[in-house]
Write a structure and sequence with these properties.
68% of the residues lie in helices and 3% in strands. By secondary structure, it is mostly helical.
């Protein structure tokens, strides 16, 4: 593991433990809202990526609930074993990550088509801005997982069917945050020197939605998810 990633993983674990202790001790009251993300960044003196990964881990453990656009709320530690049995897999197995790719195809391909048909000018602008942020992160050599998630979420929002957004949020909170980041964020493309492919795949999706070509958007999303799965397979094989 590269030194930078090892350090970030250590920080992520440190922050998740610190927040966990505050919830268990009652400092963060059950049902209450945690400090804002930017406040946690300042309080712990770490990057936003570290805070987001720590929160994703705590969400997967059932200690917090992330309500996008609302905030992060502390849950009762005594109840976490009964929370959200669906997708309770820990996603350390390659087979589980590949199954998640399959599930995503069933949801996100149609979401891209609906977004192309239904998106408003403002939603189209948000999708394009999310793509620019994602592209910039890749070009700067950053781990672009959160940028990728924001782009996919902007597409889901443009379906104007709230259940697509809520289900993608659920996948993110319950599963994607626990997978290898390459499964949803371009890390696998960076390792395999294929970031240009990843940028082009996302650009094709964004452009298809922009011109409101539903079939092109569906096919572009299908191509992207299939290629991401191939890259993940290649990356997993390189570690053997």
């Amino acid at each position: 593991m590269p030194p930078g990633r090892a350090k970030r993983n250590t920080l992520t674990e440190k922050i998740s433990v610190a927040i966990r202790e505050k919830i268990i001790s009652g400092e963060f009251e059950v049902g209450g809202k945690l400090p804002r993300e930017k406040d946690l960044v300042a309080d712990f003196a770490v990057s936003r990526t570290v805070v987001r990964e720590a929160l994703a881990k705590l969400s997967a453990d059932g200690l917090i609930e992330i309500r996008h656009g609302v905030g992060v709320f502390a849950l009762d530690p005594a109840q976490r074993s009964d929370r959200n049995p669906f997708l309770a897999e820990n996603f350390t197995k390659i087979s589980a990550v590949l199954d998640l790719f399959e599930l995503r195809r069933g949801i996100e391909i149609e979401a891209a088509g609906l977004a192309a048909l239904r998106r408003s000018p403002a939603q189209d602008a948000r999708i394009r801005e999310a793509y620019r942020s994602f592209k910039q992160a890749l070009e700067q050599g950053e781990i672009a997982a959160n940028n990728d998630l924001e782009l996919h979420r902007a597409i889901a929002e443009a379906t104007n069917n709230r259940f697509y957004t809520e289900f993608l949020d659920f996948l993110t909170d319950q599963a994607i945050g626990r997978t290898v980041k390459g499964g949803y964020g371009g890390d696998e493309a960076q390792k395999l020197d294929k970031t240009k492919h990843l940028k082009n795949e996302h650009r094709e999706i964004v452009e298809a939605i922009g011109v409101q070509d539903a079939e092109r958007a569906r096919e572009a999303m299908r191509t992207h998810l299939m290629n991401s799965e191939k890259r993940f397979r290649a990356l997993s094989m390189s570690d053997l």
